[in-house]
Design brief:
By secondary structure, the protein is an alpha+beta fold. The chain contains twelve helices and twelve strands.
Length: about 450
């Protein structure tokens, strides 16, 4: 009876334990999602997300997306002198020569602009008009007393913004803005205009076949020069900026590896018997990697001024901490038997490190260095925007102007291609250096 009672008590105890464990797990299963939901609710109101949504302007978003894959031709009339200028993106380096225009603009005493959907804009000697399909004729007589616009309806649609001194009409065809001093039409067209040759190049407007024929006929140098020194797209400057970005990543990453390797021996438990030296070195690593690279960039920019070298130093300082920590951990995991074998044949400490330690950790170190190099290629884009170097600087300048978003798209595509290339290159190099495999297997 006593044994049965003990068995029953034991079974009851195990059952109570199991039920208690189940209750705790059940509470955790409900409590954790509830805590996450509470936090997300708090964050939703703490960051005032409803106000951000209310302020959001979908039209600005659509304009930005449209600008990324299209370009604007500006047809501008000086309302005082009646002179008309036509320029791609409104830039002098994309300006049509006097008396020339695209085929949808007819110059004359009255300039007639035919838009893709059938709308017609006229810049007359005194009157500006826009015949909008499905709406009617809008006219304006700009002068010192205002835009003086008249509309076919009393109630204006939302795509017309009109006041006494300014009228803005935005349709899918383009945008017409009329003020007292200037009338300007933006016409959107698909593509990246003048990407290869600017308007003043003799090769502008030629087909691919004709350009190749000219190149084969001995004009390859001139064609390449016109493309490389394109004033609108600055291909030569962009290529140099990409080189600066890779150079910042290279100098920063491999400089950090050179600095971190000897320090890693001082931080490794099995190579540095002095606790004080180990702790000081490890705290130094923590300090370097505990401060973000962007902060180091700002600090070093104050000390050394802007430039790619400052960006490389910022990467070097940050990666010295991260790489040094990983190097020291790799050193602590080396096989001591090889070192003991070298010691038994009379090898000196430097020789033991060179032939007993370095060969063991080299695959890990190279793999990590190449990974950091690949990662820092992306980071160098952001760092370059702060230090004034690399593709990051061009990307920031294009974003600040907020007019040539096709250039932003161009730079972003180049950065993505650069990252793809560095990913492939680092993978190939790892296989070649570590395993001796040059293929993809």
């Amino acid at each position: 009876m006593s044994m049965m009672a003990d068995t029953q008590l034991t079974s009851q105890g195990l059952k109570d334990q199991a039920e208690g464990l189940f209750r705790r797990k059940k509470m955790m299963a409900f409590a954790l999602p509830a805590l996450v939901l509470i936090y997300l609710t708090y964050a939703f109101f703490a960051f005032d997300v409803p106000a951000l949504i209310a302020k959001a302007d979908p039209e600005n978003g659509r304009t930005l997306v449209r600008d990324s894959y299209s370009y604007k031709t500006h047809v501008t009339r000086d309302n005082q002198s009646a002179e008309v200028e036509i320029a791609i993106e409104g830039e002098r380096k994309g300006e049509y020569a006097p008396g020339t225009s695209p085929d949808w603009v007819e110059l004359g005493e009255t300039t007639v602009i035919t838009l893709p959907a059938g709308g017609i804009v006229t810049f007359g000697p005194e009157e500006i008009s826009y015949d909008i399909p499905g709406y009617g004729l809008v006219t304006a007589r700009p002068g010192n007393d205002g835009a003086n616009a008249t509309f076919p309806t009393d109630e204006l649609p939302e795509w017309i913004n009109a006041s006494k001194n300014r009228v803005a009409i935005t349709t899918d065809e383009g945008r017409l803005t009329i003020t007292r001093r200037k009338s300007e039409l933006f016409r959107y067209s698909m593509g990246w205009e003048l990407f290869f040759f600017t308007l003043d190049s003799p090769y502008h407007g030629m087909g691919v076949g004709e350009v190749l024929s000219r190149a084969v006929s001995g004009e390859a140098g001139e064609i390449l020069d016109d493309f490389w020194n394109n004033a609108m797209w600055r291909h030569g400057d962009v290529a140099w900026a990409l080189f600066e970005t890779v150079l910042m990543a290279f100098l920063g990453t491999f400089g950090a590896a050179i600095v971190a390797l000897p320090l890693a021996f001082m931080a490794a438990r099995n190579f540095s018997p002095f606790v004080v030296i180990r702790q000081v070195t490890r705290r130094l690593f923590d300090f370097f990697r505990g401060v973000d690279a962007l902060i180091w960039t700002i600090v070093l920019a104050r000390a050394f001024g802007p430039g790619p070298l400052t960006g490389a130093l910022a990467i070097l300082v940050t990666d010295t901490g991260s790489v040094g920590k990983m190097f020291s951990e790799a050193l602590e995991n080396v096989d001591g038997k090889q070192i003991e074998g070298l010691q038994s044949v009379g090898a000196k400490p430097v020789q033991r490190y060179r032939f007993g330690v370095i060969p063991q950790v080299t695959p890990v170190l190279l793999s990590q260095i190449l990974y950091f190099f690949e990662s820092n290629t992306r980071s160098a884009t952001i760092i370059g925007a702060i230090t004034g170097g690399g593709i990051g600087l061009l990307l920031t300048q294009a974003m600040i102007t907020q007019k040539d978003w096709e250039e932003v798209s161009y730079y972003i595509i180049l950065v993505i291609l650069l990252v793809f290339t560095m990913d492939w290159f680092s993978g190939w190099l790892r296989r070649k250096l570590i395993t001796g495999d040059e293929g993809g297997h």
